[in-house]
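Internal tracking record. Fields below are filled automatically when a chain is submitted to the structure queue. Please do not edit lines marked as system-generated. If the sequence contains nonstandard residues, flag them in the REMARKS field before resubmitting.
Queue: standard
Priority: normal
Entity type: single polypeptide chain
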Amino acid sequence: MVRVRFAPSPTGNLHIGGARTALFNWLYARAQGGKFVLRIEDTDMVRSKKEFLDEILNSLKWLGLEWDELYHQSERFQIYREFANQLLSKGLAYKDGEAIIFKVQPGKIQIQDLIRQEPIEFDAAVIKDQVLIKSDSSPTYNFACVIDDALMNITHIIRGDDHISNTPKQIILYQALGFSLPAFAHLPLILGTEGGRLSKRTGATAISDYRKMGYLPAALTNYLLLLGWSPGGDQEIIGLKEAAGKFDIKNANKTAAAFNLEKLNWINAQYIRQLSDDSLAGLLRPLATEKGYLGDNFDGNYFLSVVKLFKERINVLNDFADYSDFFFKQELDLTPEAQKRLQAKDYSREFKLLIERMKSLADFNHPAIEQAFRGLAAELGIKTAELVHPARAALTGKTVGPGLFELMEVLGQERIEKRLSRFIKEGI
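SYSTEM-GENERATED OUTPUT FOLLOWS
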């Protein structure tokens, strides 16, 4: 049976690179009918923090990457020491104070990588003797890795190619301990948009932060998958279940991919469009409540109408809170552009007539609103745009947004009258 593992260290949050590694391991396990093992590398007792562990676990669950088995290296110190003592007794290691150190023997080391076409060769002569157990009794990374991978029957090690330098160090330990070698697959790193290493500025943000920014988990896993693998053809939208039916680590990309936030936003927008209106409203309600837009007795139908209006216009959930504020505020804050538009002339007469036309409509829907609006502009002898722009500024406090007639339908006659009246001078 195929058994893979993802081994994060709780010394920091789960970021894009680690999440992709977890995803590819999870997919390979599911594709092969195997097991996905989560192993927490918490041997650094000083730097390992519970808050980081919680963030990692919650992020994996949010992404839909549930594990089959869970281990903590901090609970396995005695196991590592026993194997170190075995190497000592065989004369393959020696002590330096309280530390136990492995003696590296000369020879050639070859890595048969599942992703790369050519074998990777190393000369053991360039590898220094390796510390197995440090003087504080904690194991080193490579030693603990080898012991755990062997005892947990890990068949395939899938990780970033920044670990290639660790692989020969681990292979010689496998051989010294008499363990069978697993298959190795090293994923090319994810690059920033400018070609360098991924940074916080170019997308190396914690998964929990992407969640807070309003990305959907299915969209994020979809995008991470494309940063190293393709479902074939022109297909770009693919869910975890479908991907698991097609995934093979041998078909992973052999070259690095660049993180592109615009592409992620596009994919996220596609997943938003696929949601039902009610489902989207359910996701947006906490955000709107946090912003103070919704009280205890909010109008659910009104909120749903606003959601429908923005469904095709937002890329991330947080866009809704930023774009829709004018639907929920009692007093609008005008943008500088809106202020400039309304100060260009006195619109008292136009707004007063517009209020009257809106109040006279028996069917208050956007086709009827548009017809009345255009009719009024014609009667005033002006282009429709000359009335549209100031009306939008007065009704929304902005100069851009959804179609004016559609948003007027959602606002309703009462709100329209109140907001336009704010800009009508007495005596008109």
